[in-house]
Amino acid sequence: MEIVNKRIEEYIQDLYPTKDPVLKEMETLAVRKDFPIVGPAVGRLLYQLARMTGANAIFEMGSGFGYSTYWFAMALSHSGYVYHTDTSAVNSKLAQEYLRKGRQMNKVRFLVGNAMELIESVKDTFDIVFIDIDKENYPTAYEKAKKKLKPGGLLIADNALWWGRVLDKKGDSATEGIKKFNQLMAADKDFFQTLLPIRDGVSVSYKLK
Hints:
The structure is a single chain. This protein has one domain: Vaccinia Virus protein VP39 (Rossmann fold), CATH 3.40.50. The longest helix has 15 residues, at about 40-55. The chain has a 7-stranded mixed sheet, with helices on both faces. The protein has helices at about 5-15, 20-35, 40-55, 65-75, 90-100, 115-120, 140-150, 175-185, and strands spanning about 55-60, 80-85, 110, 125-130, 150-160, 190-195, 200-205. The chain is about 45% helix and about 20% strand. It is an alpha/beta fold. It is built from 8 helices and 7 strands, in the order H-H-H-E-H-E-H-E-H-E-H-E-H-E-E.
């Protein structure tokens, strides 16, 4: 199911064409390899949210070859940092190449492994935690992220509408994981959540306390 009409997506993309050559290269690679990335519309949102909130410390739970990491890094001041995490050392190395090419390496810390274990392994707390891992793991990721998020921080999750499959009465494990995550976020009184119908759905939750 299309969340946003393709013609509307094309209209938005035409308004804000990707100008950064490294981002364009990453978008081309994603198409060629059929590799899932958040895309430019969500990338712009991540950048804007990080800038608006003055985020200084960001943790990505699932980063692929660094497309969303790049958007976050661009939004950070020189003292800010974002953790790039992925289970694949190959993706991590590729991300490092792109971030180096875009002169953003000084803002990124790279960890290889399970994001839910990695976020517990660092002592930091964060202004933003971004979830984009296997969808069946979203409920557990929410629990891990909440503990590491500062009051006033944002918990952001991609694929929150899961191509409309959230409407299925009973879906596969990934679908059920997304549905449970959305229910947990909506019911959690420590957060104020908005689910944005951008691309495949982006959940943005503000931690009240």
